[in-house]
Amino acid sequence: MKSTLPDQLKLEARSVEERLAFYEEQHLQLSRQIAELRNEDAMKTQFLANISHDLRTPLTAIITHAEILRDGILGELNPRQRDSVVGMINGGRQLLDMVSDILTYARSAANQLTTSHTEFGIDALIEQVTTLNRPLIAKRALTLTLEVARNLPRVRADRDKIHHVLSNLLGNAIDFTSSGGRVWIHAAMAADEPRPTIFVEVGDTGIGIAPEHHELVFREFAQVDASPSRAHHGTGLGLAIARKFVELHDGRIWVESALGQGSRFRFTLPCQPAKAE
Length: 277
What we know:
Elements: H1 5-70, H2 79-109, E1 118-120, H3 122-139, E2 143-148, E3 155-157, H4 159-175, E4 182-189, E5 197-204, H5 238-248, E6 253-257, E7 263-270
Parallel strand pairs: 2-4
Antiparallel strand pairs: 1-3, 4-5, 5-7, 6-7
Helix pairs in contact: 1-2, 2-5, 3-4, 4-5
C-alpha cells in the first residue's frame, strides 16, 4: 500500500530536521576544535616569548664575560687565545640576534608589538648602520656606496625598529654578495605619495632572487634554500619582521631582483605618523 502524500511530507520534514541537527552538531564540534587550536597556538606563542626572553639573559652574560677576556681585563691573552674568544663573541652575538628575532616574532603574533616614536634624521641613522657594518664590508672586500639626498626632512618614528630594518637589509646584502661585489643604500623623497614620504633602497650585486620567490622571502620562517647544506643560515624571520616594522609605520616594503642580477630591497617611511595614530 502506497504512503499518502501527508505521510511523505512528514518523512521529508523529519529528514530535513535530522540533517539540520547533524550539521549543527558538526558546526559545534568544528567550533570547539578551532577554539582549542587557537588556544594551543596562543600557548605556543607565549612559550616562544617566555623562552626567548629567558635565553637572552644568560647569552648576554656569556658575551659580556667573553668581551672581558678579549679586552685583557683579567690578563693578556696570546693571539690564538684572543682569536678563539673573538669567535665565541661573534657566535654568541649571532645566536642572540636569532633569539631576538624569535622574541619579536612571538610578540608580533600575540599583538604585543608597540612603537615608541621620536624625531630623528634618516641620514644619521643610515650613517650609524653603515658604520657598524664597515668592518664586515671591508673583510668581505665589498664596495659600499651611499647616496642620501640632502636636506631630507626628519621623521617621527620608532628609531630602534627602523634601525632594525636597515640593519637587516644591509646585513643580507653583505651576506649574499660575493667578494669584490658592491652594496649600496640610497635615500630620497618618494614621488607619487599622498603625504611626505622617504624612499630607501638597499641593494647589492649578489646572487639575486628568482621572481617567484619575491613574496616568499617576506614570510615567517621561509627559506628560499631550505636544504641542510645551504650556505646562509638563520631563523627565516628577518624580512618578515622588517615588513611588520615598516607596516607599523604605514609604509611598505618590496624587492626587485632576478637570479644572478643582485637584489634591491626598497621601503617607504612617511615623515609623520598617520593622524589616526
